[in-house]
Structure formats: structure tokens, C-alpha cells
Write a structure and sequence with these properties.
Blueprint (H helix, E strand, L loop, with lengths): L14 E2 L19 E9 L3 H12 L4 E4 L15 E2 L7 H7 L4 H21 L11 E5 L2 H16 L4 E5 H4 L7 E5 L3 E2 L2 H13 L4 E3 L6 E5 L2 E6 L2 E10 L17 E10 L4 H6 L7 E3 L6 E5 L5 E5 L3 E2 L11 H14 L8 E11 L6 E6 L2 E5 L5 H16 L6 H6 E2 L11 H21 L1
Parallel strand pairs: 1-18, 2-3, 2-12, 3-9, 5-14, 12-20, 19-21
Antiparallel strand pairs: 4-8, 5-7, 6-7, 10-11, 11-12, 13-16, 13-17, 13-18, 14-15, 15-16, 19-20
Helix pairs in contact: 1-6, 1-9, 3-9
């Protein structure tokens, strides 16, 4: 059913995928660009942000060309865990310390992004199995519970639509003590959502070219030239919606993103009565407040999906890959620790994808150089924010005044601090999380 490759050295019984476990590859590829074109605006990247930006620009009357190196939705857009969230990445206490004055504006941006993307699903009639359940940042230890209680107060005082909930009363599995319930958003199939956006894009007036890798973007006085192996596009303006792949383009601001590989695992089907017996009676997505989060969610297939825990950086070029065996084994171990009564439930599929992490952990947008703009709305929370950010930037390029939500993430200068994310620091964070878990189990 899915585009998978079986790894001979993989975790026992697990089918590894070099694409996604959510949907099949499309077969109706758009053509490759093999000529020279001119247009008003060229969009580089066919993920959530790029597709949403191109759709809005065309709707506003612009002549738009979109270039994608694989097919639209190939990257992290179709590979993530499927949480439509109104949350920002990063611990709220840290965000309050670093961005005290900006926090209410950022909270408003994230909340509007969730509602915008929810409305977009309805407007485009995308069948992506969306369930408006909300999501919970759920603690697995008393220390985490105290922290999530404080975080709920911080977020509420900044205007977030959240509340603190007790785990058992709210219908969370027994291992999860309670936490911050994000009322907006819910769960969906991100593969179907990405491919639904792609169908709308291909049916629009946007000229779409897939399997067309961009080699360079060269600005000039009246626009920019986008070079590809078989031709070029001369545009008045260019939008870089390249997310984790931004590092591959020389024109993208230096240090703007660190590409991070995240992994997901899906179990065999679980009897609904067994799942309810764990205490998980409310169909809601769960994220833990570890330094490197864990996530757990039910799927319409009757399975449980879980991911993250271990993250990997990429010192070289980003390429197609399957999840690492040790990461899959660690994820399965974590699932069995959180759901001990399901320790006999076997993993069946694993896949992953590259996401973009900014040094600030916040979405960003701005002008890289004259006539070349960028929008990065990921940081692990990009499902809702990327389509919204792409649309806000499109409206700005169409002549609107800058929207207050775009202003909240706009960078006046394309300068970024060095990232602290590296494989050693990420491994240290994973180690600290595991030590904390071990201490909690001993105390319990």
C-alpha cells in the first residue's frame, strides 16, 4: 500500500520507508523545466509554505512558477506526525524569558495559524482524516507536571487558548499525569493533506515543475534568475520556501536553519478495548515536555504512532534515507515504557524526514536580498504555521500592508545567530531525558 523499502538490517519486524507511511507517491508528476521562462514570482519549494504561497499569489492575479526538486509534498510536509497545533516550539518559560514583549504576538500568530489551516482544509475540501481533537503537552513525572502547570499559566496570560488538565480526569493514558491542553487544532493525515494541497495547486493557474532542482538564485536590479539543470526562470521576485533544504542554496541567509532528521514508528493495529484500558479514552494527540519531545497519537487505521526522542543533524548534503535502527529501537522502548500494558504490541512501519530548526526556535520570514524573500515556518510545529506563513507572505508580495502576524516573525535583517544544535548536543539532551526518566521510575 505504501512506498516502502525493507531494510535487511532493520529493527526486527519493521518495514522501513524512504518516503512516508502516510500516503503513496503520486504518479501524475508535473513536467520538468527544460526551457527558459519569465514570470512575476517564482516559488522555490513545494512543501506546505511554498504550495500555500503559490496558490494565494495566483489567486491574487500573479503569474507564478513553482519549482520542486522531487514532487510537491515530498519532504517533511508528508512525513510528520500529523499534529495541527496552535503551539510554538520551545519551552514557554524559556520563550517568556527570551521574548517577553513579543510572546503575546507570537501566541496570536500560532493560534491564528491553526484556525487558518483548519479552514484551508475545508475550503479546498481535502480529505485528510482531520479530527479537531486538540493536543496535550502531557507530563510523565511530578516534576514535569509542575512545569506544565506553570507553563499553562504563562501561555494563558499571553493569550493562548489552553488549559491545565489532570490526566485521568481528561482521559489520558495512565503514564501521563496531566498537562497543557491546546484546544485549537487536532490530528490529521499529513500525507493526504500535502497531496490534497498538491492537487489544488496542479488544478490552479500556477505553472508547476517537479523533479526540477534549483541550482542557484541570482538577483539583479529588476528581479532574479532561478537556474535549474534544464533551463531557467526570470522572475520579478522569488520566494524561498525551502525549509530544511535552505542550506543547499547559497542565496539563503547563512545559519538560518539547521536540518534535523526526525523519525516515526507505527504499531500493528491495537484492539480499541485494550487502548481504552490504558486510560486513553480521549482521542487526542500527546506530546511530552522532555528536552527532546516524545509524541504519541492514535490513527484512523487503529494503530498507535509515536516519534522523535532522538534527533540527528546532517553534516553534508541532505539525501533520501531511512530511519536509523538504534533510533527505531529507542522509540519502541519508549512506547513500551509509556504503555506497559501494550508491551506485546509490535512496531510495523518506520519512516522519517528532514525538518528545519531555526536558532531562535521561532518561525521566520524576511528578505534575503533585493527581490528574494524567505519563509520558514517549521521548528517541528510547521503543519499549521507553514501554510499560514506562506499565505501571509503572498499577501504582502501582492501589495497588502504587512499583516500583524507576519510582522511578529519578520526579520528586518537576514542575520541569524549560530545554532547550538549539533549531534553531540542533541545526544546530550537525549541522555538527560533518559536520566530524568530513570530517576522518576526509581522514585515511583
Amino acid at each position: 500500500m505504501y512506498d516502502v523499502a525493507v531494510s535487511g538490517a532493520g529493527f526486527a519486524g519493521v518495514t522501513y520507508s524512504a518516503f512516508s507511511g502516510w500516503a503513496d507517491r503520486p504518479t501524475n508528476f508535473a513536467p520538468m523545466l527544460e526551457e527558459e521562462l519569465t514570470c512575476d514570482i517564482a516559488v522555490v519549494g513545494g512543501g506546505y509554505a511554498g504550495m500555500a504561497a503559490a496558490l494565494r499569489l495566483a489567486e491574487r492575479g500573479a503569474d507564478v512558477v513553482l519549482l520542486e526538486s522531487g514532487f510537491c509534498g515530498w519532504g517533511g510536509s508528508s512525513r510528520n506526525a500529523g499534529y495541527l497545533s496552535n503551539a510554538l516550539a520551545g519551552d514557554p518559560q524559556l520563550l517568556k524569558t527570551l521574548y517577553a514583549r513579543r510572546l503575546p504576538h507570537l501566541i496570536r500568530y500560532a493560534d491564528k495559524a491553526a484556525h487558518f489551516t483548519e479552514d484551508l482544509i475545508g475550503q479546498l475540501a481535502i480529505d485528510c482524516e482531520y479530527e479537531p481533537t486538540g493536543n496535550v503537552i502531557a507530563a510523565v513525572s511530578p516534576g514535569q507536571l509542575r512545569r506544565t502547570r506553570r507553563n499553562a499559566e504563562i501561555l494563558r496570560s499571553a493569550g493562548a487558548d489552553v488549559e491545565f488538565v489532570e490526566g485521568r480526569d481528561f482521559g489520558l493514558p495512565e503514564s501521563f499525569l496531566g498537562g497543557v491542553f491546546e484546544r485549537a487544532g487536532g490530528l490529521l493525515n499529513p500525507g493526504k493533506f500535502a497531496l490534497g494541497l498538491r492537487e489544488a495547486l496542479l488544478a490552479s493557474d500556477v505553472r508547476v515543475y517537479e523533479r526540477t532542482a534549483v541550482r542557484a538564485v541570482e538577483p539583479h536590479a529588476s528581479g532574479a534568475v532561478v537556474s535549474v539543470p534544464g533551463g531557467s526562470v526570470r522572475a520579478e521576485r522569488v520566494v524561498l520556501a525551502t525549509n530544511a533544504y535552505s542550506r543547499d542554496l547559497a542565496i539563503a541567509p547563512k545559519r538560518m536553519v539547521t536540518p534535523i532528521w526526525t523519525s516515526l514508528v507505527e504499531t500493528e493495529p491495537v484492539d480499541p478495548e485494550r487502548l481504552a484500558a490504558t486510560g486513553w479514552t480521549r482521542r487526542v494527540g500527546i506530546i511530552t515536555p522532555h528536552t527532546i519531545l516524545e509524541n504519541y497519537r492514535p490513527t484512523p487505521r487503529g494503530t498507535v504512532m509515536f516519534g522523535t526522542r532522538r534527533l540527528r543533524t546532517a553534516p553534508g548534503a541532505l539525501g533520501t534515507r531511512e530511519p536509523d535502527d538504534t533510533v527505531v529501537a529507542d522509540l519502541v522502548r519508549g512506547f513500551h515504557e509509556r504503555f506497559p500494558s501494550l508491551s506485546d504490541v509490535a512496531p510495523r512501519r518506520a519512516w522519517g524526514g528532514w525538518i528545519a530548526m531555526t536558532s531562535s526556535l521561532l518561525p521566520v520570514a524576511g528578505e534575503a536580498t533585493k527581490n528574494v524573500f524567505y519563509a520558514i515556518g517549521c521548528n517541528g510545529h510547521g503543519l499549521a504555521q507553514s501554510p499560514y506563513l506562506g499565505t501571509l507572505l503572498a499577501d504582502r508580495l501582492s501589495g497588502d500592508r504587512m499583516h500583524e502576524d507576519l510582522a511578529a516573525v519578520w526579520r528586518a535583517r537576514p542575520r541569524f545567530a549560530p545554532s547550538l544544535l549539533s549531534t553531540p548536543t542533541l545526544h546530550a539532551a537525549w541522555t538527560a531525558d533518559r536520566i530524568s526518566d530513570r530517576l522518576h521510575r526509581r522514585r515511583a
